Predict the 3D structure of the following.
Amino acid sequence: MIEFLKFYLLFFILMATSIVGAQEQKTYKIHTIAFYNLENLFDTINDPTKFDESSPIMELKANRSEAYKKKVSNMARVLADIGKDVSNNAPAIIGVSEVENQEVLEDVVNDTVLRHKNYGIVHYHSPDARGIDVALLYQKQLFSPVTTSSHELKIYDNNTRKRVYTRDQLLVSGYLDGELMHIIVNHWPSRSGGEAKSQYNRIAAAKLSKYLVDSLQVIDPYAKVFIMGDLNDNPNNTSVKKVLKTQKNKDKVDFKGIYNPYENFFRDGLGTTAYRDAWSLFDQILLTKPLLEKDYTSFQFYKAGILNKDYLITSKGTYKGYPFRSWSDGGFSGGFSDHFPVYIYVIKEQSNTTPNNSHKGGNIAD
């Protein structure tokens, strides 16, 4: 009898150890979703239908081709690097702004550091007066678009009542590893003329984004929606807090509410662009409630970040510590952008097989 009890106790210990070991080996599939303002990515060809002759590259007196090649190479380098430290891969989905056309994006995704990722492009021409657009890049083996649409933002000058032509908002719905996601890519109107005087333009842009989210939620209340872009407003401004009604605390997001992980970044003094020694966090990725659940059998939000590695930062001079921009003092600096990229990770549990973009661990943190 004693020998039997010893055997049973040993068996129980072995089984418990096995269960704990299995739990410790739990793995998560992880993907990066990113946004990057590419700072005036224009080609060297004059388009008579646009005001592209006033773009920084067209204002260069010489070496335009060399500057363009370096600019494209720099953009590809950054895109390949976003989120790579954790996901071991370039982003599955990337929203971009300040691009002239689809051709410049084709040059970027065909750069040597990105070509093997086989990115697709979703792009529409906007009526923006400067000739700049937003677009979406996606790894074809990871994301499959189903529907794409461009949504016009109609705003008018308060004084003249003339229309202000700005960027459309891009909506792409598709399947990320078999799961339906919706991405809204934005570049809201600038603060030209002053923050207060131009505020109504960004409020109008926020209302359009909110309308798109509401429309998706009417079809599916559990829609997983990402609102990303250069909003030209901070996380605490009226357009974001009052119109989109974002929350900085995941636990306070209502059923159809929107979470903004970048509000806490901003509170802590972090930013994505700088002006007159003050940081702004205009670049943000917001997400709806169904991406905040505790059930990791489907993709859920893991954490957010700002890519501000040393090579993206100006190392000396008047603008030391600012983003290392491409264009300054009427020339090409050899830099990247006047904005840092932003990104989030989404994760879900997977089987014991561990591919390159998996993440081990039992604890899920913000």
Observations:
- The radius of gyration is 23 Å.
- Residues 27-359 form a domain with the Deoxyribonuclease I; Chain A fold (CATH 3.60.10.10).
- The first strand starts at residue 27 and ends at 41.
